[in-house]
Predict the structure.
Amino acid sequence: MFQTHENLRYEYRRSPDQDAPATIHHPLIVIGAGPVGMTAAIDAAQQGIPVLVLDEENTVSIGSRAVCYSKRALEILDRLGCARPMIAKGVTWNVGKVFFRDELVMQFDLLPEAGHKIPAFINLQQYYLEEYLIGRMDELDNLELRWKNRVTAVENGVDQVTLTIATPEGDYPLSCDWLIVADGANSPTREYLGLESSGQWFLDRFLIADVVMKAGFPPERWFSFDPSYHRGRSTLLHRQPDDIWRLDFQLGWEADPEEEKKPENVIPRVRAMLGEDTEFELEWCSVYTFRCRRMAKFRHGRALFIGDAAHQVSPFGARGANSGIQDSDNLIWKLQLVMAGKAPERLLDSYSDERVFAADENIMNSTRSTDFITPKSGVSRTFRDAVLELSRNEPFARALINSGRLSDATFLTESPLNTTDRDEFAGDMFPGAVMLDAPIEGTGRERWLIELAGNRFTLLYFIDDAASIDPLLLQAFQALSENAIPVRTIIVAGRGGASQGIQTVIDAQGIAKKRYDAIDGTSYLLRPDQHITARWRGFDHDRVISAVETATANC
Amino acid sequence: MTLQTESNFHQPGKRFFRRYSAGDAFYEALIEMHRDLSDEQSAKANAKLILLLANHIGDLNILRQALEKARSEL
């Protein structure tokens, strides 16, 4: 098959750890250098935790695999210093179209409003994403990645985790305080520890074909129910960089995966979809089945499961890699506080609780999508087709069409880390929500609110005229920055100059004020992962400290 | 009163954060109602469901509009 990308092979290097007389100990080890494991390693290293990553392979993803990256995942990757090349290389898209029997019945725009740094979605081959992550890892001194290091045994002790690692030059042991398990859907580590991920298989098969072509289709997601070229089933068309197009064909359970993968069987399907006159080259194809499942909990003592190792969803909605990246985002700041002795270990149980909640939402949405796309009974198909027929004229029916509900940040509204609202607010910036971005201006290069938060606790203090702030209040903000777990205040003002020592940004268009339903004195406390954890109509130092304690399980 | 054809699924006391969530929850419950039923049982369940909802709506003007839409373009 034609290839647009050649996978680099990374070198196995012998580590001094392999020649040490005794087992070498590391504070933090990550198993698996996929998108999720690498994200976690970069975040840990950036937050000052020395980290070792082990991977059994010596290259990035074979084939494009996960191609849709969501706004929230990219916001996280941006904070980790690696989203820029991804967005530059990726195909940005906001618009999705749904066709029923060749007729356009619904269109949606995922980011209908301006004023966000990061686009709703990009499409990018997984191998590019991984290469950019590797590039970022190379820049970090306290991060080491060992290729061709396969973990073959794990002992999850009370005080430490012990690993046996197989390399081309034989086995060696390692130990660590904390283990992040990011070794994928079939996680060998999960097996070693006798743990299970359980759920539901779906009895259907899908063919993915990546084709290279110069086509005039726009960068949109096109989903077709029952098209004339693939009767009774569904297809998906999506653009990737390098003139590659992702085609997805529902095949049905009875299809023979080995036969369907053969180019002589794939090419006629592609030709039927694209038209006789479209020239294309087949680049990669794969037949997949899927299941929705998760582990009962994601923390087991010193082993912390993230990504597909912890939970799996159907591919509709791009909720796999995107949710794994959010697992990492939720975990690393908590781990940093625990490792620094600033929070109790039970803060890590909240990682499990919050991300189990998110995994359930992802599994629920992707299961609903799957049931709509591939009806399991005659009556289910009748309702599905009735929705599609009604959608020509009836807006309510268009809203019921479920061709995949695309990955979005989970509202962690049930989390005990949140401080319950005591004041009235409108809008969606509840405790537990991911902060909304907004354009702002500062004295330097500040342009986006979201760039100012993250990695630490942040207080957003809203006021119309920054010059009117009481000096005593500025002293209180200063005191917050000297707390055991520091809180950095950012004043979001309609106008007025910088205030001594406290960063002030101008919300010239009033977009931040509107998105946060803010009036003078409104204060939002953000966690290091940019989730809102408390908010008030006025500032009160003790309440802020108490909310930080609640958010870090220190009470 | 005219027939509501904009999306109208909601649940008192429950906040949905995504526009699609309430509708998807209804759809899931609808398909779940039919789980493990024979075609004949499903047809009967659908008939009962329509009767229950029709009585709840009650307004014949609304019901006649819905009946007309349901029958057109089959």
